[in-house]
Structure formats: structure tokens, C-alpha cells
Automatic annotation (TrEMBL):
SUPFAM superfamilies, per the entry: P-loop containing nucleoside triphosphate hydrolases
SMART domains reported in the protein's UniProt record: AAA
Keywords: ATP-binding, Nucleotide-binding, Transport
Gene3D superfamilies linked: P-loop containing nucleotide triphosphate hydrolases
Superkingdom of the source species: Bacteria
Protein name per the record: ABC transporter
PANTHER family xref list: ABC TRANSPORTER ATP-BINDING PROTEIN ALBC-RELATED
Disordered: annotated span: 204-227
Compositionally skewed regions (Polar residues) per UniProt: 209-222
Residue intervals of the ABC transporter domain: 5-225
Coiled-coil region(s): none
Any one Gene Ontology molecular-function term assigned to this protein's record: ATP hydrolysis activity
Length: 292
């Protein structure tokens, strides 16, 4: 059974007498949660994510819980003796797929992120953007219970960035915990369940509004539900705003990149919800600023 990942009074430093990068960190990552980590450069964000991914061990304290974990760094190592397709196929077999199934899954993930043209390109010859697409694909191929993204959007083109946002929404809706760092404050705006700031070697949870209001395109979905039914949990978690203008009619505002996830949750609910209308808008920047 999947368990929460917990950091208990964790500290990390490099070398026996090196300065502490992190110290006294307590953090719980329950299944299905989306957590954003912020902080200035050099404060220890990447160190925290490497601890969560079990790539580094704490110098003090302990980490409990062992969800199946996938990790995407900002810069993926490319000096590997594989083509992009060969690498993903190999990983698929490591994760227990038959070779034909692993090959199919590798093709599907490369296609999803627009990297099919580079399937047979040696990893060492891939551009930064193409290698990052392979990095994202290898993480999703693992069907993780915990997905750790350290500036994973860096280098991706606009279509791939949007696709990764959709993948995050899909994974959290399916019960995967996702912890991410990104330099763009608008990334997944309105979606995180919690936002933490790394500061002076410690970790502080932001109180009040957990994330910035959405400043990119968003979708307004108006639905009519079964009598007495509440909105599906996946829909309310992703929505940045919900209201009920008339009894039984609900209006949800969601990031445009997540609208398909919300619609799927509504239409596959039992009994399903009736979608009255779907419209897309780009918020007025001055209006978004006034809400800060």
C-alpha cells in the first residue's frame, strides 16, 4: 500500500564539516497532492528535491515512506549508449513491461511530447529540448506514485510545456503526489495544494493563498449535476474558482491546460454531470494584479 512520504527533522550538508544546506526540515507528501517549492537560487531547493527522490541521503534526521518515485532534473544526462527510443524501451522492461509493450509505451510517450522525429537519434546527439522531452517521458513511463520535477519545463517548447502540465494534472487525479520547482511563478497557477519556501536552510509553508491567481488562458466550464451531488473531487481540486450561480448549476474556472482533465472527471462521474457550456478566456492582467 502506498504511504505518505515524510521528512522528519531532516538536514543535509556536503562533507563532514561543510555548511548546512538544509536543516530541521519537516515535510509530509500525501498521495495525490501537488506541492510547489519556491526559493531564491542557492537556497537548497534542488537538494530538497533530491532528498525526496532518494537520490541523496539526509545527513541527519530520517525519511520514511517509499512510494515508487520518478525524478526529472533541469538538465538530463545524455551521455548514454542508447537512442531515445532504445533508452525508453530499456526502462520499460526494467519496470516490468514485455519488450513489445515497452516499445509501444516508448513510442506513445515520445509522440505525446512531440519527439517522435528523434526516436532513433543517439541520446548524446539530442538538443537540450529533445533530451528534456525524453527525461519527462522516462519519468511518466515509470507510472510513479511520487513525481519530482526540478525545473522540468526548462528547454521544452510551448506544446510540450502544456503537455507536461496536463500530465501533472492526470497523475495527481490518479493519486500520484507531485512536487515541483519552476522559475515561472505562473506555472500551474492555482493548482498546488501547498506551496513551501526554502529559506535560510529551513522550509516554510506559505499561508493564505497558496499560489498566484491564474494569469494565462483559463477555461470556464458550466455544468448541471445530479440532484444533491457534489462536484467530483478531481474537478474541485484543479479548479481555481467555483461558484453556484443558480441551484444545481455550477461554474468552474480552471487553467486551460487542465480543462480536459476536469471535463473527463465530470463526464465519467457516476452519475455523470451535464456540460452546459465551455468557454476560454485570457484574464485581464490588471484584474489579476488587483486580486493579489
Amino acid at each position: 500500500m502506498q504511504r505518505d512520504l515524510r521528512l522528519h527533522n531532516v538536514g543535509r550538508r556536503y562533507g563532514l564539516r561543510g555548511p548546512w544546506v538544509l536543516r530541521g526540515v519537516h515535510l509530509t507528501v500525501p498521495p495525490g497532492t501537488l506541492i510547489r517549492v519556491e526559493g531564491a537560487n542557492g537556497t537548497g531547493k534542488s537538494t530538497l528535491l533530491r532528498l525526496l527522490a532518494r537520490l541523496d541521503a539526509p545527513s541527519e534526521g530520517r525519511i520514511t515512506g517509499r512510494p515508487r518515485t520518478a525524478y526529472v532534473p533541469e538538465r538530463f544526462p545524455t551521455a548514454l549508449p542508447f537512442t531515445a527510443l532504445g533508452y525508453l524501451t530499456h526502462l520499460g522492461t526494467v519496470h516490468g513491461l514485455s519488450r513489445p509493450a515497452a516499445t509501444r509505451a516508448a513510442h506513445e510517450h515520445l509522440d505525446r511530447f512531440g519527439a517522435t522525429a528523434h526516436a532513433r537519434t543517439p541520446m548524446a546527439q539530442l538538443s537540450k529540448g529533445s533530451s528534456q522531452k525524453v527525461a519527462v517521458a522516462q519519468a511518466l513511463l515509470a507510472d510513479p506514485e511520487l513525481l519530482v520535477l526540478d525545473e522540468a519545463w526548462t528547454g521544452l517548447d510551448a506544446a510540450a510545456r502544456a503537455e507536461l502540465e496536463r500530465a501533472v494534472a492526470e497523475r495527481t487525479a490518479a493519486g500520484t503526489a507531485v512536487v515541483f520547482v519552476d522559475h515561472d511563478p505562473r506555472r500551474l497557477a492555482g493548482a498546488p495544494d501547498a506551496t513551501y519556501t526554502v529559506h535560510a536552510g529551513g522550509l516554510d509553508r506559505r499561508t493564505g493563498q497558496e499560489s498566484a491567481p491564474p494569469t494565462g488562458p483559463h477555461t470556464t466550464v458550466v455544468v448541471q449535476g445530479p440532484r444533491g451531488a457534489g462536484l467530483p473531487a478531481e474537478a474541485t481540486r484543479i479548479a481555481t474558482r467555483t461558484d453556484e450561480p443558480t441551484p444545481g448549476i455550477h461554474r468552474l474556472t480552471v487553467p486551460a491546460s487542465h480543462s480536459d482533465i476536469v471535463l473527463r472527471a465530470l463526464l465519467t462521474a457516476r452519475p455523470p454531470w451535464h456540460v452546459v457550456s465551455v468557454s476560454q478566456e485570457t484574464p485581464d492582467p490588471s484584474e489579476a494584479e488587483s486580486r493579489r
